[in-house]
Amino acid sequence: MFADIIIDISHEQLDKTFQYNIPDNLRDIVKIGSLVNIPFGRANKMIQGYVINMGEEAKYPVEKIKYIDSLVTDKVGLAGEMIELAYWIKKNYGSTMNQALKTVIPVKDKVSQKEKKSVCLNVPVDEAKAMLDTFLKKNAKAKFRLVEALIEEEIIDMSIIKSKLNISASTIKSLEDDEIIKINSEEYYRNPVPRRNMFGKNVELNPEQRQAADLIKKDIDENVYRTYLLHGITGSGKTEVYLDVIEKVIESGKQVIMLIPEIALTLQTVQRFYYRFGDKVSILNSKMSKGERYDQFLRSMRGEISVIIGPRSALFTPFPNLGLIVIDEEHEGAYKSDKTPRYHARPVAIHIAKKKQIPVILGSATPSVDSYERALNGEYKLITLTKRAGDAKLPKVYVEDMRDELRAGNRSVFSRRLKALISDRLEKKEQIMLFLNKRGYAGFISCRSCGHVMKCPHCDVSLTAHNNGKLICHYCGYEQENVTTCPECGSKYIAGFRAGTQALEKLLKKEYPNARVLRMDTDTTKNKGGHERILECFANHEADILVGTQMIVKGHDFPDVTLVGIVAADMSLYASDYKAPEKTFQLLTQSAGRAGRGKSLGEVVIQSYTPDHYSIQTAAHQDFRGFFDQEISYRKLLGYPPILNMLKVTLSSPNEEALDRASISLKERADKVNNSIVLGPTKANIYKINDIFSKVIYIRNKEYGKLSSVYENLDNFVIGNPLFKNVLVNYDFNE
Predict the structure, then answer these.
(1) Fold of the CATH domain 207-389
(2) pLDDT band at 415, cuts 50/70/90?
(3) Annotated binding site, which residues?
(4) Residues placed in the known binding site for Zn(2+)
(5) Mean pLDDT throughout 615-629?
(6) Which residues have a Cβ under 8 Å from the Cβ of 622 and sit 6 or more positions away?
(7) CATH numeric code, 2-104
(8) Model pTM?
């Protein structure tokens, strides 16, 4: 047996591994993640390294491969745990070991520590005063200024000396060399937490919240560690439950990872946490500088912070004594990586928690179908919050049928009711949020007169329009000609929907010229701090209307928002994705939940061309269980997750013929493995991007382990196979 060993665990060294022979006496002991002593270099100097892979194949002549000397048993440390976790991700999500390692190692490059310098006198004050005359005689005005300032002020910051006193570096160096002054230097951390407006309040938990928090804390006291699904309606105060449990974990000397789905959530979330726990809280996100990320990495390693808040990458924070993982808005798609390895934060968090014997809390007003099914089956502990905190009432919801609007001659994207309510709120100086449901809209064809959507007769997902005039199903490959008139009602109003946030912003400014409108989408938030600036503006009443895509509906709490308008509610409903009804229900429920979180009752207008669809009706009534019961019955009927597990294999190539040959070959291979259900190959949702063509194959099996072995079988078939020379193959589980 041979082991691939990495000497330096820093990110830039990950591609450099060295192969060693495992001696017989260590074969049953050495494993992936083990720290071992090895002879290194020509002098065979004994150093330490981590085992990142093992196998029976020698990469070099066997006689030239050195042997591992011994196992380091007194310290495995965080690096060993990270390597073990990377290996688990590699096996469960389909990637190379290096790709998995680069995912779990949180800091990519070492960044020099920031230093703060200050200056003080190195001679008695009387002696310094005597020197002033000498400086004047020699016309050394800069030295005079600095020494005179230091006689007045005992210690002066270096930045002030250079900027306010205009003292050059050479003058400072000269005085230091003459031992007249002394330069003090201390390292400090870059702090990414915005200190402004750190408001908060001590909240008394209501009976439901107290019962939920006490149940989890009692389990912790009794060393019972499990995964909890905290299902609370919008505004029920799930964060207060998290805070109460987190406080107990911190008091026991342990640390907490708090995952949130969007960078946009950071500001409000951090304010509440910082108010409660002060400097023990920090954040991680992709918009931070390398230096800021590196400093949080160091602080975590040293146990100097107790709570880290961030998106899915924060899950790999190297805490020495982790005690709890919380995943807020656990249903969010942002917890799924869109790069290889395509891991999902939820099962990775649960895997980490099982290893460390700690609890995981999953929280959501609209839990994923997968999580709720697991809770009903007893895999997770279900805790339910049914009341809004502070006696706030759920908003009144109107579902507007846009087919009726068209028949009444209203061709605007705003229904008559929504227009009237916007005018009313502007008059009352109350705030409005308008959400454009754009997720997954590209390509689906629907009728504005009767609401009919062109769907696959085999897969119950919408057909996608392609440039070649075809409507195609991206699950089974069914295709038909595009349509110009509705097959149900004969209307000519059948086409794809095209509207964006900029168009809505222009319409609002035209319709309501005195209204102050803010837009929040990928364009307005691409720069660092963009999310925070827009949300702070809106929170400070610098705008009346906030227009945006799904990023405006994720957990924000604005007590003066009394109207939420959802434009084109069914845009996400007919994406060519089996999860489309689930995502639509979640988006609509979360959007509606932004209204009426203060003292005033909120109102919500949901605009739809298919108002009777179960996802829209149940969202309007905030009826999660009603939605779940209908959705799970469809999943059972069609064999979609969580009933069956699903592996999506995507093949891409600039050569269309090579792609066709490779996909047919891989499909034939998949047919022979593990009695799985195999669909495809069919064209990907977007078949051609930048002259690269893509096809997909779907493989289903009840057992995840069997699907994992299918992946390994296919991957071994692809590696080194000339058929796949110019074809890239990617794997994605349960997507």
Answers:
(1) Rossmann fold (3.40.50)
(2) very high
(3) 447, 450, 456, 459, 473, 476, 486, 489
(4) 447, 450, 456, 459, 473, 476, 486, 489
(5) 95
(6) 233, 234, 365, 394, 589, 592, 593
(7) 3.40.1440.60
(8) 0.78
